Amino acid sequence: MHKHFIPLFIAVLLPTFGLCQETEIKSPKANDRAAIRANQICQIELHDRSLDVILDESIQFEVITETEEIEIAEGPLWIPSTKTLLFSDVKGNKIYQWSEKNGLGVFLSPSGHTGTVPFFEGGILGSNGLALDPAGDLIICQHGDRRLAKLSLGNLNQEGLSTLIATYEGKRLNSPNDLTLAANGDIYFTDPPYGHCDIANSFPGEAMVFVDDKREIPYCGIYRYEAATGKVSLVSDDMKLPNGIALSPDQKWIYVGSSDMQDPKIWRFSTEDGTGDVFFKGPFEESDAGWFDGMKMHKSGNLFATGPGGVLVISPEGKNMATIRLPDPVTNCCFDENEEYLYVTTFAYVARLKLKK
């Protein structure tokens, strides 16, 4: 990624965020912003009072890790057995781990790009989405190596990595981005071309430039991997930039966020036959910057999606139940096993918000 891209990217989006208390800052230094973020109360716009059991009208925003080494935090995953949060640094090509007991450390490096397959040098090449399969193995979306890889948590090195999915109909995937697992172990995942994004010539908030000379699949697919057979099937190729993905509690629907900067939407597809359409497209306030990125399903059946304005809570009927206003753009989110905390990743740090459960 071009070294000037991240500061420019944040500068484009930042003015429309910062709706937490104590955020009247003029050209703050990084360490000043970190100190202010560490103790913020963020406001929640509740559009449906049924969410009172989950959310208050304000929420503590707790930055749990911030270091200059993290460049784009993504793909957060809570590991219940060790009370540990894993997350990817998509630009830094690492997976980090964090726990209250041990703090921050590197979990796996490199995490998504080893140079073993054809890749675009100017793309976003590290790991992204992470998930645990029913056996407790880690499934990793790898942009640079263009595959879904599997890693045993008892063998944390490159030799412990194995390829789970790398091709569809004999053609190499673009750059798998995010994934969600069904109860039977089936994997649904998105395959946009961010590993082929020409960051140096892209304009944040306006348009992204993609280079096609290394791509073998011309569209951006949403796929299903059948755990019992190993078969990979195409659910849909209707979306231009499918990104975050989540499965409904009854396993009948998958929700997919579009990271089209000019047209933020969430789609919904049937797991039975792949039919789908736009599920949610606002309305948004004029000041709401950003697009849909990561998302996770809450046990209530409501979808928590990082998108324009912060984290949106969307009902199964497609209604915006609440918007959690956060101080910076967020890339993804996840819950712990008891849904006590919502963890969010940003371009430079990871934070958590305590829910009412």
Q: Can you identify the CATH class?
A: Mainly Beta
- What is the chain-wise order of helices and strands? HHEEEEEEEEEEEEEEEEEEEEEEEEEEE
Under CATH, the homologous superfamily reads: TolB, C-terminal domain
Main sheet properties: 9 strands, antiparallel
Task: Tell me how many strands there are.
Answer: 27
Would you kindly provide a written description of the structure presented here, covering whatever features stand out?
With 357 residues, the protein is mostly beta strands. The protein has one domain: TolB, C-terminal domain (Neuraminidase). The chain is 5% helix and 40% strand. It is built from 2 helices and 27 strands. The protein has helices at residues 5-13, 30-37, and strands at residues 40-46, 58-66, 73-79, 84-89, 94-99, 103-108, 127-132, 138-142, 147-151, 161-165, 167-168, 171-172, 179-181, 187-191, 221-225, 232-236, 242-247, 253-258, 265-270, 276-280, 295-297, 303-307, 310-314, 320-324, 330-335, 341-346, 349-354. A 9-stranded antiparallel beta sheet has the order 21-22-23-24-1-2-27-26-25. A 4-stranded antiparallel beta sheet has the order 3-4-5-6, with no helix packed on it. It has a 4-stranded antiparallel beta sheet with strand order 7-8-9-10, with no helix packed on it. It is globular.
